[in-house]
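Re: the 649-residue chain
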Amino acid sequence: ADLHRAAPHALPSSGLVSKYADTMPNSVAVFAALDELVPPQALLALSKVIVAISDLVAFAQAQDTMSRIGHLIVFGFVYAIYRLITHEWVPQVDVELTKEEKAGLPGKRWKPGTPFPKDFIPCYDPGTLEMLGPDMPADNADQVRVKIERARIAQKKWAKSSFKQRRLLIKTIQRFVLENQDTICKVSARDSGKPLVDAAFGEVIVTLEKCKWLIKEGEKWLKPEKRSSGLMMFYKNARVEYHPVGVMGAIVPWNYPFHNVFNPLLANVFAGNALVVKVSEYASWSSLYYGRAIKACLKAVGAPEDLVQIVHGYGEAGNALVTGSTDKVVFVGSTGVGRMVMKAAADTLTPVVLELGGKDPFIVLEDASLSQCVPMALRGAFQSCGQNCAGAERFYVHEKIHDEFVARVMKAANQLRQGWALAPGVDCGAMCMPNQAAYVQSLVDDAVAKGAKVECGGAIDEDAPGQFYPPTVLTNVNHSMKIMKEEVFGPVLSIVKIRSDDEAVALANECDFGLGSNVFGSTRRALEVGSQLNAGMTTINDFCATYMAQSLPFGGVKESGFDRFAGIEGLRGCCNVKSVVVDGIPGIRTDIPPPLQYPVQHCAFPFCKALCHMFFGLNILENARGLLMLVSAMMIPTPKVLLKGAKKD
């Protein structure tokens, strides 16, 4: 920079180097080296850039603190304007609830114990039992197959879309979610019984996190991936390509009616697929509003509106989705139904991803921070009234801090407020499934009969207006009780006192399920314990953080299912994986060596053995020996004796 200021139009070759050799030896050395390697015009341009940077730094150094702050503010303002001007336009989607959806059916209530009709789906608020609208028609098998065919036609067009268009679709959905959080959460609360805060956690935040991850990294993980071609094919280029699987089928549960639809939707449309998703009969009403939003987002970016199809119905509809020519199926639900899905898919060899039950351990080691882990234990047990696939159901607490842990838990648990999801100040809402509260009660009763102590809750309030089970804390729990073996899916915090880390690991693994797990303690110790847990996911000093990290796959082992959705693995799971090999060096191609061409020569087998030694020998001497063997094999004469069947010339 100093050289350029002294003679701005001079180049190193003009004598500038020798002129300043005494006064600026370091600068001269750099320019002298560059003079040999870089064209003069390029070196001049480089020097101008260096000068500009140098002047900018000098200017900043000459300012006082307030001036620097002022310049930074101006720069930040200018940069913000630049980003605003150059930012990609994202369509705004306006979808409102209808008057009928807002009003419901005043005065009409669902009568507990009434069987669901075969051809219709009752829609009611589990917190009040008030009907949300008329019964919805249940799709039959033929109607499901029609929806699959519509999706297939739309997918053929969408498969040709660019990643730019797919990102725009994700951004459009992201904008819709951001601008309609209130309605999204209220609709979910009315359909599934969860309070608004729980809906914000489980419906909105995780969906937005997935949008952001796909926008930022999705294309990266679906682009062709270079692989090594091997020693013998060093002159080849090998890669893996990811092509859309086609029409993905998904059967999702009722606990998070918004996210359970949008989670598979986001990944599949980004991968170039269509999606046919069957929502639960226990949370179908919300899909009317969510479905209109989906179609509006698709239309806004020019995507086929039939790309996403929503199925309502019972077992017949689910079976048709699995057997009705979808290219792959993701099922999220109970282990029993998962087995039925797998059996149905076997007839058509349809690939399936099963995310089944969970009974996650929550281990509290003796050096854990109670101020951190107790609030998370409460959230893990009582969020969405315990109706979570990866909810914490088994709490193993070291004996040295057990009593303090219980005391802190009880201090908060005794203050929990339960009621209608949209009522102010509600911590726990209702149970979504009609008979779930009675099932939870049976598990609590079994535990009490075998020695467990009810610290709070533990009994259904028969006068409650809806489907409620109170937040319950059990102590003195052991593994002889059903509540430590069967998935609860309810608001019960069951505490087991442990004496050592080894006991915690043994008890945590003594379970048929293996979805998630959580360990609290000093980081090194918690990691050591976590590494021994037989589960698909482990979070250290946090609760279920693996799901917020959307680059990570979600799924379990044992009776919690197999394969994964979400994350890189889940995104690539929306694709057919194709291996490709092509010549990588111009002028070099593969030709079968003469000894191996049909009819093979007498030296063919020795030739193959020689190749093995030459390429795969354990040291250079063996490689050299292989080369000699190859030359020797080529010199083996072809016998004149003809094999039976060979023809004379």
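Residues 3-21 have pLDDT under 50 and may be disordered.
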